[in-house]
């Protein structure tokens, strides 16, 4: 079973096709079976939550987080991605998908949302706040960038979450880490180290329910 886990991690990091892992790893059929099974029965999410709690404890943080940081990122979709699941980001003029994430103050992921790139950040922020409120009821504070508008602030207030929009410094040029928000940018950078996450790929039928079409 450890070799099954090694193969899943290898596939996520390298982005290789399921049929082409190194020959010293278990066969594709077994690896894909357990990957899908553990994802669908909640095992993968449970492991993720336990690892996040351990990481927080190592940093002398309480396991119940009280603050989150929200952001979205547009990534290009692969050539075989379904057209009804992709769109054009009007701000960045980039086609593909958007992924919105909510992280804690350490940059550890709490919630994820994958949508067409044409969806506005407001809709992403509202959906993420709903997810955070349902899975992390102890959260009372959130930081977002200027792409999230007043609708997100008002929705957060209804959920008991104080949403603060972090404005970019007036004299800032190029990439400048912003207070509180830099952790979510770091999280996106870490995700891109895994080639499977560097581009929006074909979405299997059992996953399409989790990917929202553009509005």
Automatic annotation (TrEMBL):
Domain Insertion element IS402-like stretches: 1-48
InterPro entries noted in UniProt: IS402-like_dom, Transposase_11
Taxonomy, superkingdom: Bacteria
Region Disordered, residue ranges: 78-97
UniProt-listed Pfam families: DDE_Tnp_1 (PF01609), DUF4096 (PF13340)
Domain Transposase IS4-like intervals: 64-193
PANTHER family, sorted: PHP DOMAIN PROTEIN, TRANSPOSASE
Protein name: IS5 family transposase
Organism of this sequence: Streptomyces camelliae
């Amino acid at each position: 079973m450890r070799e099954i886990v090694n193969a899943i991690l290898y596939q996520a990091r390298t982005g290789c096709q399921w049929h082409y892992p190194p020959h010293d790893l278990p066969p594709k059929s077994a690896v894909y079976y357990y990957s899908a099974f553990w994802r669908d029965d909640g095992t993968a999410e449970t492991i993720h939550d336990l690892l996040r709690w351990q990481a927080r404890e190592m940093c002398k943080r309480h396991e119940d987080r009280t603050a989150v940081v929200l952001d979205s990122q547009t990534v290009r979709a692969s050539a075989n991605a379904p057209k009804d699941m992709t769109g054009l980001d009007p701000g960045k003029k980039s086609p593909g998908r958007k992924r919105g994430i909510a992280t804690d103050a350490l940059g550890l992921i709490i919630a994820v949302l994958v949508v067409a790139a044409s969806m506005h950040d407001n809709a992403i922020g509202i959906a993420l706040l709903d997810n955070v409120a349902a899975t992390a009821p102890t959260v009372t504070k959130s930081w977002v960038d200027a792409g999230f508008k007043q609708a997100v602030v008002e929705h957060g207030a209804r959920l008991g979450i104080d949403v603060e929009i972090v404005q970019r410094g007036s004299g800032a040029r190029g990439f400048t880490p912003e207070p509180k928000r830099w952790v979510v940018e770091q999280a996106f950078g870490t995700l891109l180290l895994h080639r499977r996450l560097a581009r929006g790929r074909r979405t299997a039928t059992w996953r399409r329910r989790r990917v929202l079409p553009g509005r």
